[in-house]
Amino acid sequence: MIKKLHVKNFAIIEDITLEFNKGLTVLTGQTGAGKSLIIDSISLLLGKRSDTDMIRYGEDKAIIEGYFDSTSEIETFLSVNDLPLEKELYIYRDITKNKSNVKINGQNVSIQILKSLGNILGDVHIQNDTFRLFTKEKYVSLIDPIDNDEFEKIFNKYQMDFHKYQDAYNKYITILNNSKTEQDKLEYYSFAYNEISEHNFHENEDKELIEKAAKLKNFDKIFQAIKSAINSLENEYFSLDNIYDSASEIKQIAKFDKEYEDIYNRINDSYYNLNDSLSDLKKNINSMDYSEDELNEINSRIVLIDNLKLKYHLDLNGLIKYQNELKLKLDMANNYDEVLKESYDELNSKFKALIKSANDLTLYRMNRSNLISKSIEALCQDLELPHTRFKIEFAKNIPSDPLNKDIFKDDGIDDVEFMISTNLGEPLKPLSKVASGGEMSRIMLAFKAFFVSESKLSFIVFDEIDTGVSGSVALEIAKKMKQISSSCQVLAITHLPQVAASADNQLLIYKEELDGRTFANVKLMSKEERILQIARMISGQKISTYAISQAEDLLNN
Fold first, then answer.
1. Rounded CA gap, 440 and 417, in Å?
2. How far apart are alpha carbons 260 and 254 in whole angstroms?
3. The whole model's pTM is what?
4. Which long-range CB contacts under 8 A does 220-228 form with residues at least 24 apart?
5. Which of 460, 479, 464, 446 is nearest to 554 (CA)?
6. pLDDT averaged over the chain?
7. Contact by Cβ (8 Å): 119, 93
8. What is the pLDDT of residue 45?
9. Distances (CA, A) of 299 to 198, 217, 320, 347, 391
10. Cα gap 158→175, rounded to integer Å
11. What is the topology classification, in CATH, of domain 1-128+456-525?
12. What is the C-alpha end-to-end distance of the chain, expressed in Å?
């Protein structure tokens, strides 16, 4: 869970620190007070893209720091990515007009690493997320699980086969579009191919040759340095045996004090490291041989490579790639029909492999969709949609033409529709066409509740997911958030008094004006302050006695 958040010079926030506890914490306050800035700050710690416009006016950079409880999943992630393991997870991020910094437990990391960590750390629902339920293209992303090994294996196999298919497709189309090669071009291709290929270059050979030439040019210097190093390790004044004897002496007293055990280990390691180094130096000096003819041959080949690089305006690896392209062009011209057939057969093979991977991905999603549908129906019943029927339908896409590449997408071939009926006796219809705003909020909350139940996330953030509801529905949403918070820390921005009253903690976000500047501040509210704030949420700025009574009842119940 997130324990503490420190934000400095971020929009209207000058410098605030928030501490969070387990359970449900709500952020309340007037519109524009800075509640969404808190959510944005947390999102930045999970890998969201930064915006330099959010730096407070007059400042050079904004700083966001977060402290989180560590979990076994987080510790595994840190270990795999060679990041320091600490008792708690610390994430630092700043935003500057030039280069921004991201650190995990004090070590600089890329934004991609931070985003990967964010996927297993927490989830932030912003107001626009609910609109994904109106967009068919986003449905697949709602079905796919996060941090699921089985799914990742199937999905990665599809993407690998997809890239292989794209390469084969592009190669085939290139051959198809170059069926006729002008004779003068063919002659040039043949000349250039022969000129490059006759030398049998290999990748990075020029760099290897320059390194070899440098060694031969400095043969005497290298030889004398190795010889001196060997003499330093083998002479009458210094002996490796003395180090070994020293280690043996300390070993005898190591059992009496751990400090001596550490000293013994360091001396012993030094002996073996020096001994290995001495053996390597002897081996190297014995194998060294200077040949002026070899140096001349290397220099000649370096000149040859440099001339060809200059002639074709390519580096060596580019020359090798160009050589392969020329061979394909020549093969196309001389054996066009055969080359085209070979390319099509390769394309068809990659197409069949991709179809299998795509079908495996679809089957996984269909099986998961059955579970999601049943869970959404049950969760919607808890949210006062008692007659909800929910179904995820998959269009039957059965590709048969290897040249029909448009059916394949980065995330598969699935065309998905969310079908729903919230009224008894009504048929299933597309969700985006029949659900109201309040129903959308509840359905998205149901999705999030299902998502949390199967994930290992330590916290989830809701930014006004309760928009468009009131009355008894608001009470049910409050209950659902409270239920989610029993297994996962929940932070929520809300304007509903029912949700605010159900929270374990309530933070008031408010604005102050001082010396012509606006400042956002935060305050952990006492029970008495919560009563007044919830009463204000019920009746507006003018608090009535009735509203205070209602607020007390909500808090007590």
1. 15
2. 5
3. 0.61
4. 222/288, 223/285, 223/288, 226/281, 226/284, 226/285, 226/288, 227/285
5. 479
6. 88
7. no
8. 94
9. 18, 11, 20, 44, 72
10. 26
11. Rossmann fold (3.40.50)
12. 26
C-alpha–C-alpha distance, residues 506 and 26, integer Å: 5
> What are the boundaries of each domain within the chain?
1-128+456-525, 183-334
Of 158-167, 230-239, 343-352, least confident by mean pLDDT is: 230-239
Q: Strand 459-463's sheet: what is its strand order?
A: 122-125, 459-463, 489-493, 24-28, 505-514, 517-524
Tens digit of each residue's pLDDT (9 = 90 or more) over 475-488: 888 888 898 898 88
* 3-state DSSP of 199-233: CCCCCCHHHHHHHHHHHHHCHHHHHHHHHHHHHHH
Neighbouring residues of 255: CB distance < 8 A, sequence distance ≥ 6: 261
Q: Return the pLDDT at 16.
A: 94
Residue with tokens 């297993």: 120
Percent of the chain with pLDDT over 70: 97
448: its two tokens: 């999030």
Confidence of residue 43 (pLDDT cuts 50, 70, 90): very high
Which of 101, 109, 102 has its CA nearest to residue 82? 109
Eight-state DSSP code of residue 525: P
Other Cβ atoms within 10 Å of 266 Cβ, number: 12
**Cβ atoms 123, 1 nearer than 8 A:** no
pLDDT class of 133 with cuts at 50, 70, 90: low
Q: Minimum mean pLDDT among 19-23, 110-114, 206-210, 229-233: which range?
A: 229-233
Dist. CA 528–CA 339, nearest whole Å:
82
How wide is the angle at C-alpha 105 spanned by C-alphas 104 and 108, nearest 5°? 45
CB 534 within 8 A of CB 555: yes
SS (H, E, C) 282-339: HHHHHHCCCCHHHHHHHHHHHHHHHHHHHHHCCCHHHHHHHHHHHHHHHHHHHCHHHH
Q: What is the pLDDT of residues 355-387, one digit of tens each?
A: 999 999 999 999 999 999 998 898 888 888 888
Strand partners, 4: 19, 67
Would you say 290 and 266 are in contact if contact means Cβ atoms under 8 Å apart?
A: no
Q: How confident is the model at residue 181 (pLDDT cuts 50, 70, 90)?
A: low
Residue 50 tokens, joined: 């930064």
Phi, psi of 100 (to 5 degrees): -95, 160
